[in-house]
Amino acid sequence: MATSRRKTKTKPFTFHVEMRPIVKGRPRLGRRGKVYTPERTLEAESKIADEYERQRGPYYDGPISVEAVFYAKGLDVTITPLEPEHISSLRGDTDNYLKLLCDALNGVAYPDDKAVMIVRGEKR
After folding, report:
1. Which SS3 state, helix, strand or coil, does residue 114 take?
2. What sign results for the dihedral spanned by CA atoms 12, 18, 22, 24?
3. What residues does 66 pair with on adjacent strands?
4. Using an 8 Å Cβ cutoff, are 6 and 61 in contact?
5. Least CB-packed of 3, 65, 74, 83 within 10 Å?
6. What is the reported pTM?
7. Tens of pLDDT along 14-61?
8. How many Cβ atoms sit within 10 Å of the Cβ of residue 41?
9. Helix segments in the chain, DSSP class H
10. Are 13 and 58 in contact (CB under 8 A)?
11. Closest among 3, 124, 7 to 64, alpha carbons compared
C-alpha cells in the first residue's frame, strides 16, 4: 500500500473489482515444512489491492466499516470511517472472530457456514 496517500476521515469510498470472487485459501504446508499461502489467494488479494489503488482509494487511519457485495463476476466494496467510540479493547481482526463463530456453528445451527449470506457483506 502506498504511504503517500492522503488520509480521509469523513467520507465513505466505494469501489468495484471485476473478478470472480473466491474464498481465502487455507495456509498450506510445503514439502520442506514451510507454510505458504496458495497462489490463487495471493493473486486475488493482489488484484483487489491493485484495483483499490487504481481507483485512488483513500487511506483510513481510524475505525472503519467494510461492506461488500459479491457477484458472480465481481464485487463492490464500501469503506466508511467510524467515530472513535467504535474502538474496541479486543485485539483480533473482526473477520477472524466471525470466521470462528461461523465455523463453530457448522452442524449445530446450519449444515455448513456456506449458507451464511450476509455479515455486513452479501453474496448475490
Report:
1. helix
2. negative
3. 79
4. no
5. 3
6. 0.79
7. 999 999 999 888 899 999 999 999 999 999 999 999 999 999 999 998
8. 17
9. 39-54, 94-104
10. yes
11. 7
